[in-house]
Specification:
single chain; mainly alpha; 2 domains; about 85% helix; about 0% strand
């Protein structure tokens, strides 16, 4: 019903091109805070109005801005409330909090890619020890991964005649690059830890 309401709102407004952001960006903020509807709806609307490249680009930028708004609001105003909420569901979130401490931004990048509500990811990060700049980097890369993946899926539905082979190949290359960087970073960190132990 909510998806139909959003689509009806867009149809009545008669907004096209970049003007559609007048509706989709405020809705992205609502989605980022409350998570009451999937972000994919907004991606689809942006792609429909602006084309696949501009639609994905504006969705990515919107996702980054909203993720950081929610993060700073969570850290400044809602950390006590969210900590209490986590304690009530400790078994569900405890492992991810441990991963935050172990792998930092890599956990956030993975969570952004998985079908997990964005507001939960941002709020969980806000009560962790992650530094703001590291979170910003994770939101840039993580939202890129998420938008790219959802864009591939939604474009095949909206534009079935569009050849998305290049988009898929580039996304696979992007994911492989992230995996290589992660493995290399973990390897160097482990070697550094071993050398530190030996010096002691």
């Amino acid at each position: 019903m909510l998806s139909e309401w959003i689509e009806a709102l867009l149809a009545r407004s008669s907004l096209t091109g970049f003007y559609v952001l007048i509706i989709t960006f405020p809705l992205a903020i609502v989605q980022g805070i409350l998570g009451i509807f999937p972000f994919t709806i907004l991606i689809v609307l942006n792609i429909s109005a602006m084309g696949i490249v501009n639609g994905l680009l504006t969705s990515w930028i919107s996702g980054i801005i909203v993720a950081n708004i929610v993060f700073y609001c969570g850290r400044s105003f809602f950390s006590d409330w969210f900590n209490r909420k986590i304690k009530r569901k400790e078994s569900r979130y405890e492992k991810w909090q441990k991963y935050f401490e172990l792998y930092g931004i890599w956990t956030l990048i993975l969570l952004r890619t998985l079908p997990i509500p964005n507001n939960v990811v941002s709020l969980m990060a806000s009560v962790s020890s992650i530094k703001p700049f590291a979170y910003f980097i994770s939101s840039v890369v993580g939202n890129l991964s998420q938008i790219w993946l959802y864009g591939i899926i939604s474009s095949s539905i909206i534009m079935p005649k569009q050849d998305s082979k290049l988009l898929i190949e580039m996304y696979i290359a992007f994911c492989l690059s992230l995996i290589i960087v992660f493995v290399r970073g973990q390897f160097l960190q482990r070697n550094k830890g071993d050398r530190t132990k030996e010096s002691l």
